[in-house]
Amino acid sequence: MAQHTHQHHWPARLFGSFALMATAAAVITMLSPGGLGRPGPTEVTDGASVSAYRSLTEAVGDAPGWLGHLLELSSEATLIVLGLLLLGVCWTALRRRDPDAVAGAVLVGAGTVVAYAVSEALKLVVDEERPCRALDGAEAVAACPEPGDRSFPSNHATLAAALAVGLAVRRPRLAVATVPLAVAAALLRVLVGVHYPHDVIAGALLGGAVVAAVLLVLVCPAGLLVSAVLGR
């Protein structure tokens, strides 16, 4: 009966996943350089995103050097905490031999990897210069990434949103921790001066949409597979 129910809902899940990804793709395309009326395919030098970038970076531009290092480390720490939360959820599911929970945790991890790969591919296609090199007088408190390390979308925001959304979907109570962590990860990448706001917004949309779509389509068949492996 359970298998029949999963098969019955499969077309709806597939359509929902496609609609989610199509919507995210449309918004990300709009946010990419040139999509909001910004000139040039590779450099962003004016517009709302630049204004927001300058406002945020100038707010911490006069801070002591140690604060810049702390902010940069904090952006990495958000990903570590989210990764540890996912490992904790997976470990708990394995101890309880809960096939649906194990499948969900594995799919969150797999979806995060897929989102990261897509983010890297988009960087090559969009080829947007980092704001700390493209903008005159940019107030970056972190070291600007090496030339060739492109800006759009933000990998950090992609990873953070993917983990945060996946954990929130599978364990709604964790949303009070995961969502603020993802927001912090994105905001910190702008504060330290290495990303524009539109970079992190696009990354967050990408990560969240990919993981949500993966869960929507694959969580039921993956649960059945894990159940067979665990002998339940």
Can you tell me about this structure?
This protein has 232 residues and is mainly alpha-helical. It has one domain. It has eight helices and no strands. It has helices at residues 2-31, 48-61, 65-96, 99-126, 131-134, 155-170, 175-191, 197-230. It is globular and about 60 Å long. The two termini are 16 Å apart. Residues 1-5 and 36-41 have low confidence and may be disordered.
Classification by helices and strands: mainly alpha
Query: How confident overall, as mean pLDDT?
Result: 85
Low-confidence segments: 1-5, 36-41
N-to-C terminal Cα separation, in Å?
16 Å
Q: How many H/I helices?
A: 8
Count of domain modules: 1
Order of helices and strands: HHHHHHHH
State Rg. 19 Å
**Overall spatial form:** globular
Helical fraction: over 70%
- Tell me the major beta sheet: none
Number of strands: 0
Strand content: under 5%
Features:
single chain, 232 residues, mainly alpha, disordered N terminus
Provide a brief overview of the structure.
With 232 residues, the protein is an all-alpha fold.
Ordered list of secondary-structure elements with their pairings:
Layout: H1 2-31, H2 48-61, H3 65-96, H4 99-126, H5 131-134, H6 155-170, H7 175-191, H8 197-230
Helix pairs in contact: 1-8, 3-4, 3-6, 3-7, 4-6, 4-8, 6-7, 6-8, 7-8
